[in-house]
Amino acid sequence: MTTHAPHASHTVTLPASLDEAVAALTAMPAAVPVAGGTDLMAAVNAGLLRPAALVGLGRISEIRGWQYLDGHALLGAGLTLARMGRPDFAALIPGLAAAARAAGPPQIRNAGTLGGNIVTSAPTGDTLPVLAALEATVIIAGPGGARREIPVSHLLAGREMLHPGELVGFVRVPLLHAPQAFLKATGRTGPGRATASVALVLDPARRGVRCAVGAVAAMPLRPLEAEQWVASLIDWDGERGLVPEALTAFGDYVAAACIPDPAPPEDGSEPATLPPAALHLRRTVAALARRALGRALS
C-alpha cells in the first residue's frame, strides 16, 4: 500500500497457496485480491476503490511459474510481465513475450501480472489480444479445491464471470511452434498505453491464421472472415509468402471488420461517414495488421 492511498485497507491477508487464498476470499466476501496492484492501486489512489480488506497473492509460488502439459503451456496467473519478456519465455510463446515487453515502463512490467491483466480486462491490456489469438483458456480455482476451465474470450466478454471466492489460477496456452507477432500503436494516453494493437499467430497444423485487435473496443476483436480469407491464400506446404497487395488487402479487411462503417439510415437518406478520429484509427489498425502478417510470414 502507498502512504497516500485514501481509505487504505486495514486487513491484509497473505496466503501461501491458491486454496488458502480462495478460503480467505470466501471468508471475507468484501476482500479484494491483489497481485501486482498496478491497476488496483491506481484506482485506490484516485478514490475510485476503497477495499475493506486485501488478499495478497505475492507469496503463492505455484502461480508464479509455468509447466508443459500435453502440447500446452500452463502459465501461472502470478507470472509478471517482466518474467514473460525474458528470452526463455519468448522461445516458448513469442507473441505473449512481445506483448509483455511492450507493456509500459519497467516498474509496471516488474509488478504487473498475467492474471491481473485478465481480471482487470482493461481494453488496452497488451497481453489480452495475444491470449485471444492463441485461444487460451483460464483455470479458475474455487472453494473446496474446485477447478473449472473456460476460454479467456468468455471471461473478457462477460459471457462467464468469476463467482464469489474464485480466483484465476492458471492460463493454458497451446504451443503452436510457429511464428507469432504483436504490434501496437501508442498515443498521448500514457506511457506505453496502446491506442490500437494487433496480435497474429500462424497455426500450420490447422492451416490457419488467427488475429486479434486490441484497444479499439471493450475486448479484443477477432476478424474471423479476414482470418479465413488470408489463410486460404497461403501456400502452407511451400514458402508461405504473400504478395504486398494481399498483405494490404488483409490489413484493410481486418480494419473494416473491427471499425465498420456506420449502418445506413433506415429512411434512405445519405449514409453517415466515420469521423476523422475513427478513420485514423482504422488506418492504424490496417497498418498494424498488414505488418504483423508480413512479419509472421517472413
If you had to describe this structure to a student in words, what would you say it looks like?
Keywords: FAD, Flavoprotein, Oxidoreductase. It comes from Streptomyces siderophoricus. Pfam families: FAD_binding_5 (PF00941). This is FAD binding domain-containing protein. The radius of gyration is 20 Å and the shape is globular. The longest helix is centred in the C-terminal third of the chain and has 22 residues. Helix 10 runs antiparallel to helix 11 and helix 11 packs across helix 12. The strands form three sheets. Strands 4-5-8-6-7 form a five-stranded antiparallel beta sheet. A hairpin with a 7-residue loop joins strand 9 and strand 10. The chain is α+β, with helices and mostly antiparallel strands. It is built from twelve helices and eleven strands.
Question: Can you summarize this structure?
Answer:
This protein has 298 residues and is an alpha+beta fold. The chain contains twelve helices and eleven strands.
Could you tell me the strand content as a percent range?
15-25%
Share of residues in helices? 25-40%
N- to C-terminal distance: 46 Å
Q: Could you tell me the number of beta strands?
A: 11
Total helical elements: 12
Main sheet overview: 5 strands, antiparallel
User: What is the radius of gyration computed over CA atoms, rounded to a whole number of angstroms?
Assistant: 20 Å
Shape: globular
Which strand order does the major sheet show? 4-5-8-6-7
**Average predicted local confidence, pLDDT:** 91
Which segments are poorly predicted (pLDDT under 50) over 5 or more consecutive residues?
1-9
Q: What structural class do the secondary elements suggest? A: alpha+beta
Q: Summarize the helix and strand pattern as letters.
A: EHEHEEEHHHHHHEEHEEEEHHH
